[in-house]
Amino acid sequence: MLLFPCPNCGPRNETEFHYGGQAHVAYPEHPAELTDREWAEYLFYRQNTKGLFAERWVHSAGCRKWFNMLRDTVSYDITAVYRIGQEPPALRTSQPTTGMGMSTTRQGTPEGVQL
Amino acid sequence: MVNTTESTDAQITDVQQTHLTARRHSPAEHLWAEFAKTASAEARVSLREIPFQVMVGIRVDPLSEGGRRIGAVTGGLPTACGQVTTGVAGMAVLWLGPDEFLLVAEEEALDGTLAAELVAALGDGAGQTVDLSSNRTTFELAGPSARAVLEKSCAADLHPRAFSTGVAIATVIGNVPVVLWKTDNETFRVFPRASFADYLGRWLLDGMREFTVAESTTWH
Predict the structure, then answer these.
(1) Which SUPFAM superfamilies does the entry link to (chain B) (predicted)?
(2) Residue ranges of the domains in chain A?
């Protein structure tokens, strides 16, 4: 069982939550001016990160609110949760990886986050 | 509309209401006989349904003007997960989300004007108050083993240090989304949606069996 720290409800079982995909994918400012390819990339192209990843979750069986979470897709470590609309918290760089990670350092900013 | 017409309308509504009240069915009434078998003086845990409670769904920002006016009717609105505020006539407001609350009250304790009062209190403020009385039914699980029964299939931390008397949370019991309210040391109220009442009622009865079977002294 994995405990997710919901910003509203505190630690709850992961089965109470639903996944919302990569976080911080901004809606295009002028969607009508995009080419089909750019629009398709906005709609469907997502990071496939191995490591720390910013993603959206909804506490569907609890407070029913969306929030963002920084989760390691290899170790399932949850580094931070923060509210929708907030920037991801600054992270320490050069954290040593554990387990089966190939690299020895991590990016300071998780993939998929455009600051 | 003049006053005399209003009072006539109210009388007709009362008669119709009484008529309807006598004919309605609660979602788990077919299980009442099974529930009754769990109740005895020495029972470790017992289960009953409390049918037809008044429930009102409230969606409002508690810090807004409308939220404050609604709070004045209900005896305040809870501000954090787990909190329950109590008001007049046994009215309780459970926290479901930062802007979502569930008002629960005994039907007998209210005079039927609550919904209208809440709508008037919200006024033109952003939000909604909706009568959800038929949405959920109420189970009451009580006894020294009540927590042990729930913990079989509820992943939320129900230890008294995390879930004390008076706390209510929205969570999941045996795959059924419920609101769980600890009303006393060994008493839990479970609010499943009506269509889950049969399943959850049987599920809880099954979980209670090991605690309700009479202890045998002939075991070897």
Answers:
(1) Folate-binding domain
(2) 3-83
Contact B157 A11 (CB under 8 A): yes
Residues of B in contact with A12 (CB under 8 A): 155-156, 171
Whole-number average pLDDT of chain B: 89
Fold of domain A3-83: Folate-binding fold (3.30.2270)
- Which of B96, B156, B177 lies closest to A63 in CB terms? B96
Q: Which residue has the tokens 């045998």?
A: B216
d(CA B48, CA B38): 9
Enumerate the residues of chain A whose CB falls inside 8 A of the CB of residue B177. Answer: 61
The kind and range of the H/E element at B86 are: strand B84-86
Question: In the β-sheet with B84-86, what is the strand arrangement from edge to edge?
Answer: B84-86, B92-97, B100-105, B54-60, B127-131
C-alpha distance from B51 to closest chain A C-alpha (Å): 23
Q: What are phi and psi of B135, to 5 degrees?
A: -70, -45
Q: What's the token pair of residue B206?
A: 């099954």
Q: What's the pLDDT at B217?
A: 53
Tell me the shortest Cα–Cα distance from B149 to chain A, in angstroms: 18
CA–CA gap between residue B165 and residue B17 (Å, rounded): 35
Total beta-carbon pairs less than 8 A apart between chain A and chain B: 40
Tens-place pLDDT, residues A21-48? 999 999 999 999 999 999 999 999 999 9
Do the Cβ atoms of B97 and A1 come within 8 Å? no
CB contact under 8 A, B98 and A64: no
For the segment B7-27, what is each residue's pLDDT rounded down to a tens digit? 455 555 677 777 778 888 999
State whether residue A32 sits within 8 Å of chain B by CB: no
Amino acid B181 reads W
**Second CATH level (architecture) for the domain B27-51+137-214:** 2-Layer Sandwich (3.30)
How many H helices and E strands in chain A?
1, 6
